Amino acid sequence: SSPSLCQPEREAMFHRGPGLNLTSGQYTAPFAGYYTFSTTLHIARREPRRRRQGCRGSRLRVLICVQSCCQHNSHLESVSQLESSGDLFTISVTGTLYLQAGQYASVFVDNTAGSPLTVQSGSDFSAVLLGV
């Protein structure tokens, strides 16, 4: 007999460990150590295309920050130029940060484009303890 393909019954089946708070969007480190973080955001522009101004220099920054401090060596960052013709963007950030027990990390989006953006379903955020 061949193995059956396991289909998850609900999204929460992929939530493992006590650190992720789905309400606040923060991952709190249960232990001090090095964590690898990853996020992939699917972002849609909500403004109709005909109302947009072709603003050069418009960019989208996605950051994973420790304790909401997005400075110095306490964050991971990815920057993407926004094309004036696009309606949907995908941007990813992956890297390693050191967290003390009880510190949290969360995702921030810095939108310099001026047009409203929406994070779409299918986006993700994960953290894995690599070692202490």
Automatic annotation (TrEMBL):
User: Mostly located where?
Assistant: secreted
Specify the domain of life of the species encoding this protein.
Eukaryota
User: A Gene Ontology molecular-function term?
Assistant: hormone activity
Tell me where in this chain the C1q domain is found: 1-132
Q: Where in the cell is it found?
A: Secreted
Name the GO terms of the biological process aspect: negative regulation of gluconeogenesis; positive regulation of D-glucose import; positive regulation of insulin receptor signaling pathway
**Which SUPFAM superfamilies does the entry mention?**
TNF-like (SSF49842)
Instruction: List the GO cellular component terms.
Output: extracellular space
What Gene3D superfamilies does this protein map onto?
A: 2.60.120.40
Alphabetically sorted, this entry's keywords are: Disulfide bond, Glycoprotein, Hormone, Hydroxylation, Secreted, Signal
Q: Which family does it belong to?
A: Belongs to the adipolin/erythroferrone family.
Name the UniProt record assigns to this protein: Erythroferrone
Q: What taxonomic classification does the UniProt entry list for its organism?
A: Eukaryota, Metazoa, Chordata, Craniata, Vertebrata
